[in-house]
Write a structure and sequence with these properties.
It is a multi-pass membrane protein. The chain has 297 residues and is mainly alpha-helical. The protein contains nine helices and three strands.
């Protein structure tokens, strides 16, 4: 989680500086795509703040109203971020682009736009490199897409997606802005804005899918279920593990329920001792399992 904060802070600093300069340049040059990029950076800045808030809230200690803690706060705020990317980032950029295609405005001298775009690429590219390095530390050689699907920490890959979308959007804007100015086709500025918006919509849908799954109670993988089953059934008191229920309360905390069929000849005290043994074995093998509830069947 500390590594994720490093990438979030770097993205926050980059987006905050870039957003202001994009709006100023867009206002001076009547560039729709530049204003869309300003909106994009503003949304990204807000997203980083919300992610940091979600991480802080997820660390809050358990209390009477939330006996399992507040870990799912991170998943909630990650989902909010995906909605903001879709609505304030993607939809507004597409809308802005459509308006400028219907009523195109001739761009003034785009010199300062290019300066801003080049600086933005440098800052966003640096932030992307940092976020990719931090994400690589968590995926342990697993393929990128598989690591994203298996990750239970949205903040680990959300910044990578945001920075990647930012770099892609900046590249599109720079290319189409140059063509628009060189050949006198002001509609291309609106097209660039629409493409930026569609990139953001695509990213938001992926992030919403992953955050929703975790928020709705995504459990451990089938491979982990199998390993826990074998661990439980190694105990002499166990006939078989009938079912395993689980949910991620946070990226670092799992609630596990084991429904176990014990030997018929065991008395209450022997079953209690077996429950304690199994709980200790599972928690030792899987440090992320914070709570182990065992239900004799």
């Amino acid at each position: 989680m500390a590594n994720n904060r490093k990438s979030i802070y770097s993205a926050l600093a980059a987006n905050l500086l870039i957003a202001v300069t994009k709006f100023i340049a867009g206002g001076f040059t009547n560039s729709s795509s530049m204003i869309s990029e300003g909106i994009h950076s503003t949304v990204d800045t807000t997203n980083q703040i919300l992610l940091l808030y979600g991480i802080k809230r997820s660390k809050k200690a358990a209390d009477e109203s939330h006996p399992f803690g507040y870990g799912k706060e991170l998943y909630f705020w990650s989902f909010v971020v995906s909605i903001l990317i879709f609505g304030l980032g993607g939809a507004l950029s597409v809308y802005q682009g459509i308006l400028h295609i219907i009523e195109p405005e001739v761009m003034k001298d785009p010199f300062w736009n290019y300066i801003v775009l080049i600086l933005s690429l440098i800052f966003e590219g640096t932030s992307l490199i940092i976020s990719v390095k931090e994400f690589n530390k968590t995926r342990n050689g697993v393929r990128w897409w598989d690591a994203i699907i298996k990750s239970k920490d949205p903040s680990s890959f959300l910044v990578v997606f945001e920075d990647g979308a930012a770099v892609a959007g900046l590249t599109v804007v720079m290319i189409l802005m140059g063509i628009s100015h060189a050949f006198g086709i002001p509609e291309l500025d609106g097209v660039a804005s629409i493409i930026v918006g569609l990139i953001l919509v695509f990213v938001s849908l992926i992030l919403a899918r992953e955050s929703r799954s975790l928020l709705m109670g995504e459990g451990i993988s089938p491979e982990t279920r199998e390993k826990i089953t074998r661990l439980a059934e190694q105990d002499d008191a166990v006939v078989r593990t009938k079912n395993i229920l689980s949910t991620y309360q946070s990226p670092e905390e799992i609630v596990l329920v084991l429904i176990i069929d014990f030997e018929d000849h065991l008395d209450t005290e022997e079953i209690t001792e077996a429950v304690l043994r199994i709980r200790q074995t599972v928690k030792h093998a899987f440090p992320l399992v914070r709570y182990v509830i065992i239900q004799p069947e």
